[in-house]
Phosphoribosyltransferase domain-containing protein
Amino acid sequence: MAGLYDEVPTVVLGPVSRGSLVGALTAAAVGVGFVEMRKHAGSSVDSDRWVRRTTGPDYQDRHVVFGFRRQLIRPADRVLMVDDWIDTGATARTARALVEDCDAHWLGAACIVDGLTDPRLRHDLPVRALLDIRQL
């Protein structure tokens, strides 16, 4: 399966706030661009310049609108999302949809701690982590 395991990203996508920190550091280490995925992104004045999606419920049963400026991810880009923790997969699934809205190639999600309870998500997204929550 092509994806996170054998392709080099051209862009790292990091959700605010901790994903922005870890993602920017990852992008700098790999030598590629970084895009911050913002909450409640864009204004009504230039809404056509933004790509936005609403998450499914997160670990606190909230739904969050994420987005970024459309021109920051191009169709030829290979995008890796980086975050500190993955729990329900809602943010990663939303990131994947945003990347696909830009006609770019989704590589997967990388995080520090994997707290997923549904093992299918590890394969479907795909997800790679430094630690499993059971190790903490």
Remarks:
- Helices lie at 18-30, 90-101, 119-124.
